[in-house]
From TrEMBL:
Protein species of origin: Pararge aegeria (speckled wood butterfly)
Record flagged with keyword Flavoprotein: no
Disordered, as annotated region: 73-111
Protein name per UniProt: Bm8 interacting protein
Any Gene Ontology biological process: vesicle cargo loading
Annotated keywords: Coiled coil
Length: 111
């Protein structure tokens, strides 16, 4: 009888351990599931951030290209204005020479 109650106590102890082990396994499985969900969430967030970054880079490159085109056009316009000013100066000088006008800075020759 004593041996039976010892074996029964041992069996009950093992049952408790196995129940405890099953509970631990279930808790660990739940924890693994939470980590998988968190991993999926972070992966999705990373993909969204990469997409937003690519969009931002594309927009910046487009603005940069537009600014470059505007700068080139402004440079061409400045060069054209410079050429126009030089042409007007030459035309004015030619008109002064044709009219026989004397420059106000030139000394007058005596007769």
């Amino acid at each position: 009888m004593k041996e039976l109650s010892t074996k029964e106590a041992l069996w009950l102890s093992k049952q408790g351990e196995s129940t405890s082990t099953v509970e631990k396994i279930e808790l660990l499985q739940q924890e693994v599931q939470r980590y998988k969900e968190k991993c999926d969430t972070l992966t999705l967030e990373l993909a969204e951030q990469e997409s937003a970054r690519r969009t931002a880079i594309s927009e910046m490159e487009a603005r940069e290209h537009t600014a470059w085109l505007e700068a080139r056009q402004a440079k061409r316009d400045a060069e054209a204005s410079k050429d126009d000013a030089a042409a007007l100066r030459r035309k004015l000088a030619a008109m002064h020479q044709a009219d026989g006008a004397v420059s106000p800075h030139r000394p007058v020759a005596s007769p």
